[in-house]
Amino acid sequence: MPGVSLRNIWKRFGTTEVLKGISLDLEEGEFVVLVGPSGCGKSTLLNIVAGLETLSEGDVLIGDRVVNDVPPKDRNIAMVFQSYSLYPTKTVRKNITFGMEIRRVEKAHQDAALRSVSELLHIDPYLERKPGQLSGGQRQRVAMARALVRDPDVFLFDEPLSNLDAKLRIEMRTEIKKLHKRLEKSIIYVTHDQIEAMTLASRIAVMDAGHIRQFAPPEEIYESPADLFVASFIGSPPMNIVRGRVEQDDGIRITVENDGGPAIRFPVPEKFAAGASAYLGKDVDLGLRPETVTAEGGQTGSDLFAFDRPIELVEPTGPDTMLVFGLGGQEVIARVRPEDARPAGQQFRFVANMAKAKLFDPETGRRI
Amino acid sequence: MSGRTDDIVRPKGARQAVLRVLLFVILGLFAAYYLLPLFVMVSTSLKTLEEIRTGTLVSLPGTVTFEPWAKAWSAACVGVKCEGLKPYFWNSVLIAVPGVAISTFLGALAGYALTKWRFRGADVIFGLMLFGAFIPFQVILLPMARTLGLLGLAGTIPGLILVHVVYGLAFTTLFFRNFAVGVSDSIVQAAKIDGAGFFSIFFRILVPMAVPTFGVTVIWQFTQIWNDFLFGVAFTSSDSNPVTVALNNVVATSTGVKEYNVDMAAAILAGLPTLLVYVIAGRYFVRGLAAGAVKG
Amino acid sequence: MSASDGRGGAPGLGRRLEAWLPQIVVSPIFALSFFFVYCFIGWTIYISFTKSRMLPVYELAGLLQYERLWATPRWYVALENLFVFGGLFIVGCLVIGLVLAILLDQRIRAEGVLRTIYLYPMALSFIVTGTAWKWILNPGLGIERVAHGLGFENFKFDWLINPDMAIYTIVIAGIWQSSGYVMALFLAGLRSVDDEIIKAAAIDGAGPLRTYAGIVLPMLGPVFLSAIIILTHLAVKSFDLVIALTGGGPGYATDLPATFMYAYAFQRSELGMAAASAVMMLATIMAIMVPYLYSELRGGNR
């Protein structure tokens, strides 16, 4: 049934390679988010699935059918664009029914479909208006209605929320998630916003420079990033990465040197010991998410490790306060409760939860 | 890179291929239609009169002769004088160069002052000036003829320069106003804080930024002035005629045998400067045309 | 040229001068424009209400010249020609310009070259192209001879000297000269349409024809308006082309208001009637341009 399969997709413009062998399987009803920095090829990939761009090599399958040469209209897909791309000279009603008119859908059927989507998305009050007379959020709803009314096998979303203001964006995000629950259709959704990706996706494909770095459920992407790129792209504030040397000294430790202060020797917990011991005497990158570096008493666990560093900067965010300090020549962020925070300049006792630390090979970037 | 629409997967097949061929055929036919007069002009100008009489319009010259060109340049009769187009060609140069320079400079100053030093009434002044670009010039022919007479400029080259400057101002001001509107006010403000005055901001900041606009304006004005016929025929006498008027007289001169090859050579000579400008700086030319469409 | 010049002597004088500099610079330029446009228009309007013939007289004579104008058969010929020429010229340029723009919009490799070819007539003087067309349309040696050469012995093409058909030769040359310009306007309009809208139409299943007719062209409303205004303006002002191609003849069969005015002003010394006809032309242009300019400038300020 209609999942989507991408098999070794390449896309070249002249000598530039935009996609370098992408393979991805999307099960029916899945919500897959393609996320990555601008220029990583995610929009090109979406356009290839839609048939809006041709591919240089590989196969796109929708269901069991290879659709490489099938025009967009025959792929049974619907798409919501970043700029909404509503037809400016047509009313909202005509915008929604235009595709059905072309497909010669019966009038009675058209009306019924129009009624059901406009109720679902609450756009009936402005069916007779032109897009120019609508607010951004309303246009967004119309664009979604136009896609919904097709009743396609697959929905494609190309950064649909990036033109909305922050509040509306969160609102529409929830709305899209609800719609997906209700329709149970496959969705491919492109965004550069990692929070959108985390909240919406059943699986996330993190893309960079024409490759998929990791394709996994959001929790796994967050907890077990495949490499340094994924680790630093997902999460806000991003994961702290410091370089240290692996040494054998009362168990395996990672020694991080500091200017103007003693080196700190992070103990490597039992479960990483085997992997880390292969790097004895070599450098590794130690990744610590800000919420795993707190004040004393800020977290519990068996692999807590305390160390002292002077606070450089204090950034209150409300629920938490970020303490910025130097470690191994890097700026590192710790997330503490506001009442634990101290002014900048003071020495502070930080606690790192080493069970949640990640180790990366500095050369390949892969996780150890 | 993903903002392209030509890469959309379209149905393939014989029908598409036929359409594609048809597209090129139609475009090619139109290209032939536009090129035909130019081709006829060039080929006729290289034929002997004998060949014109025996051959047809579209036949290529059997023996190429440059005689008609030489004659058109220096011996063809304009009315009763038979000195060719040469003196009139130089008249046009003498009219166009100062005409373009003065109207461009004044338009640049006016466009700058009206947008970057917005004083009360600036918009009204601009609106009134702009309107001047769209009047049918017939409405000013009679008073202009009298005014030039009163100034002692009737039938002279400086008189025609004055006419072109005055009626070119509307366009040059429009071009520079459109440019200056796009320049951030904060740049001018920053310069004022640095102590720059009206003229130093103009010469040291605006002018260097406006090079493309100068290009558009100069090309527009040059084309307008060089190609003008109405003012030339109304306000100059035989010695000060611009080349367009002289060309028309060459063609209309009916003494003796009609020398079509000389006519065509003369037409090409008269059209050559603007054609060259178009070929060399077509991009600016098109931008001028677009701005002439009053995009505010 | 800076404000500090006034620091030594009279303090403030320099600065006050500086503050007025923009106005001081603009006023002579504006005065020039104002005098040569508005005062001259005023003078022409005034003369059209006098008895002026050879020389201007300043005694008002009411609508005399307008009555004479509208009693002149030649004026009616000029007006009728303007309608025939203007109508065909505008429609012809719009159709050809639009078709060419759409065809060129198909992202073809030779686009740059073709665009240059379609547009070059705009760079040429009407006198130059008129001379060429006059030769091409020459009854004996032009197209007629080509057709004879191809075996069409009875082909006759004498529009240039046929009073009923001569005006159409001006239409042919006019469209040839200006349709490329309209093409450029439309092409720019087509290129400004958001690519995503075309993609949305592709997903909705609209073929190329449907995409243009149903979606893209309705979005080009403002371009149509600009093009029609510009073409109307060109048509009303047409003078050079007529002079070069037919000289207004045969007889006055191809007179347009512009050539009519010129003939009455400079050849027949009927200043009053010439002024009256010029005023009629001005009124026509103003009726079209003023609302257009007004809305354009308003739109620009918004």
TrEMBL record, chain A:
Residue ranges annotated as coiled coil are: none
Superkingdom to which the source organism belongs:
Bacteria
- Residue stretches making up the ABC transporter domain: 4-234
Major location (coarse): membrane
* Cellular component aspect of the GO annotation: ATP-binding cassette (ABC) transporter complex, substrate-binding subunit-containing
Q: Which PROSITE patterns match?
A: ABC_TRANSPORTER_1, ABC_TRANSPORTER_2
Q: Which GO terms describe its biological process?
A: carbohydrate transport
Q: In the UniProt record, does the keyword NADP occur?
A: no
Q: Which UniProt keywords apply?
A: ATP-binding, Nucleotide-binding, Transport
Per UniProt, subcellular location reads as: Cell inner membrane
One MF term in GO for this entry? ABC-type transporter activity
* Pfam families hit by this protein: ABC_tran, OB_MalK
- Which InterPro entries would you find in this protein's record? AAA+_ATPase (IPR003593), ABC_transporter-like_ATP-bd (IPR003439), ABC_transporter-like_CS (IPR017871), ABC_transpr_MalK-like (IPR015855), ABC_transpr_MalK/UgpC-like (IPR047641), Mo/tungstate-bd_C_term_dom (IPR008995), NA-bd_OB-fold (IPR012340), OB_MalK-like (IPR040582)
What is the membrane topology here? Peripheral membrane protein
What protein family does this chain belong to?
Belongs to the ABC transporter superfamily.
Name of the protein this chain belongs to: Sn-glycerol-3-phosphate ABC transporter ATP-binding protein UgpC
UniProtKB/TrEMBL annotation, chain B:
Tell me any Pfam family this protein matches: BPD_transp_1
Per the record, membrane topology reads:
Multi-pass membrane protein
Predominant location: membrane
Limits of the ABC transmembrane type-1 domain: 89-281
Q: Which intervals of the chain form a coiled coil?
A: none
> What are the protein's UniProt keywords?
Membrane, Transmembrane, Transmembrane helix, Transport
Entry-linked CDD domains:
TM_PBP2 (cd06261)
Family the UniProt entry places it in? Belongs to the binding-protein-dependent transport system permease family.
Record's protein name: Carbohydrate ABC transporter permease
